[in-house]
Specification:
453 residues; pyruvate-formate lyase- activating enzyme; 19 strands; alpha/beta; Arc Repressor Mutant, subunit A; 9-stranded mixed sheet; 2 domains; 15 helices; binds S-adenosylmethionine
Length: 453
Amino acid sequence: MVRGMATFPPVSPELLQRYDVPAPRYTSYPTAPSWNTEIGPAEYAAALKRAATRPDAPLSLYVHIPFCSERCGFCACNVVITRSREKADKYLGIVAREMDAVQEHLGARKTVSQIHWGGGTPTFLDERQIETLWNAITRRFTLAPGAEVAIEVDPVVTTRGQIDLLRKLGFNRMSLGVQDLDPTVQQAIDRVQSVEETRATLEHARALGFSGINFDLIYGLPFQTRETWARTLAQVLEMRPDRLAVYSFAHVPDVRPNQRRLPINGIPQGAEKLALFRMAWEAFMNAGYQQIGMDHFAAPTDELAQAQSRRALGRNFQGYTVQSANEVVAFGTSAISDIGGIYAQNPHSLPHYQDAVAAGNLAVDRGIRLSEDDVLRRGIISQLMCNFYVDLSAVPGLDAEFARLADLEKEGFLTLRGRTIELTPLGRIFVRNVATVFDAHLPQQAPRFSRAV
Ligand SMILES: C[S@@+](CC[C@H](N)C(=O)[O-])C[C@H]1O[C@@H](n2cnc3c(N)ncnc32)[C@H](O)[C@@H]1O
């Protein structure tokens, strides 16, 4: 049998208008606008103590490295622009102190099945600093066999020596910031990165044994047209990364002043922006990738795609994962722990974070305690986001939610069989909108999310 071409489900202008509204990305539930300052160092310490009562359960460990040597024009992340090595040295010393403070409460709970270094740009750290941070972690925590050890890299600033060292230390997953390969787009976003640099980083990492190598791309950037984007997609597919994230450009110049220098008239909007996503979707699906979540794709041989086929894909703050750890302990500025029944976030500000830890305290300044209802809804939303499916046969009630789902079934977003919900290809594009049905906090939140598509 010859398989047909995958075509993007038709989205009428009316449907797009109804559903391309601000909606959370659901990297957490409850989402950040519901967090508050009631969670501080004392609550975090108590949560760590609760977590310590399960000494054998593996943890996921995140370290945030906020530094970048330059500010890219598109970037909406929490970063510190500097060229100072000393700043990073000081930061690494503070992160190690934070690990000590956390371990005081975690006690014998030391096994980690996932490590993730995110940023900023983790490869802002030079080789000596990479080893320092690695040693700080492995002196305090024990790596489980088969652990997933991942890092985000910017190919422009990452050397072969750094990649060799990372692999030698035990890193085995890598995510490359690519965004777009067209020179005009790259100039507009102040992120000039040749195809050769990207290819060389990918091929070197792959030759050393890194797997699950991901490219981050963004659609909706200034001066992206269907022609330029088609070329970028073809070049990306020629390199065949194992995973692809295709993010909707979050244009938030009010909160990110660096975005104010973008050429506003060149930014694709509405149907034109959706057309760019459609092109990526069709290119990746027809090249054999599987859709993992709304804007992520993985090769069928990749562990994420295989887990999704078994409806066993999971997700945490670091992204999609097959690792069993369901609690995250996180270090550094803005880092979010998900442990002992709470979300706990460190301050965004580098001085606030450093001062708190230097004074011998935990630095957490906001978060939320999850109720039983939150935990139930978080599980449902996670199933929808990861596996496009959830079976609620064992969950009573939710009558109002099922009534709303019946409406979404009429829109063609999902199929209801008894109390199982399965998203259609169209519903997978609008999965954030479907997830909002189960979000009990949304009605009380002031809208401040990016658009759903
Ligand atoms: C912290 S960065 C990755 C590491 C590294 N600094 C780099 O730029 O290659 C994480 C990712 O967030 C995404 N990102 C950043 N700003 C964004 C925005 N305004 N809209 C959508 N995605 C964005 C990019 O795809 C980027 O690769």
